[in-house]
Amino acid sequence: MHEFTIASSIVNSLLEALEGYPGAERVDEVDLVIGELSFAGIEQVTYCFGVLIEERKQLKGCRLNVTTEEGRAHCKECGYEGALNMGSGPGYHHILPVFACPKCKGEVDITAGQSVSIRNAKLIIKDEVD
Ligand SMILES: [Zn+2]
């Protein structure tokens, strides 16, 4: 369900982007960045996106290129700055982990890897010479 929500918001963003470009006919390709702390499964997002674009002629056939972004944090206690040890055991998607500093177990601020964002979208502009 989480991934479906993410895929829906990507579709909405792309449709909005299209409206912002007069003459843009459809979206051909999208580069998406999925942060590992967003807990979105790449395969599920890709699948949901594929289902959603089937019914949108402006997006049909659009390619989705997904890259991942490492989760990073800044520790409020010891000043550690860097990757979080996320682990990858089964159930990892179902438990909301408490993020803690890998060095001192202190409280951290997440600085990267929490979001899903569109980095680039390739629009097809209508050929005006008919
Ligand atoms: Zn620390």
CATH topology: hypothetical protein PF0899 fold
Order of helices and strands: HEHEEEEE
Tell me the helix content: 10-25%
Total number of beta strands: 6
- Cα-based radius of gyration, to the nearest Å: 18 Å
In one word, what is the shape?
elongated
CATH class: Alpha Beta
Q: What is the CATH architecture annotation?
A: 2-Layer Sandwich
- Helical/strand content category: alpha+beta
* Average pLDDT for all residues: 88
Task: Give structural attributes.
130 residues; alpha+beta; hypothetical protein PF0899 fold; 3-stranded mixed β-sheet; 3-stranded antiparallel β-sheet; 2 helices; 6 strands; 32% strand; binds zinc ion
Describe the structure.
This protein has one domain (2-125): hypothetical protein PF0899 fold, CATH 3.30.2320. It starts with a helix and ends in a 5-residue tail after the last strand. It has 130 residues and is an alpha+beta fold. It is 24% helix and 32% strand. 20% of the residues are buried. It has a three-stranded mixed sheet with strand order 2-1-6. Strands 4-3-5 form a three-stranded antiparallel sheet, with no helix packed on it. The longest helix is centred in the first third of the chain and has 19 residues, at 2-20. The structure holds zinc ion. Zinc ion is lined by residues 75, 77-78, 80, 101, 103-104, 106.
Topology:
Blueprint: H1 2-20, E1 24-35, H2 42-53, E2 63-69, E3 72-75, E4 81-83, E5 108-112, E6 116-125
Parallel strand pairs: 1-2
Antiparallel strand pairs: 1-6, 3-4, 3-5
Helix pairs in contact: 1-2
The chain binds zinc ion.
Zinc ion binds next to loops.
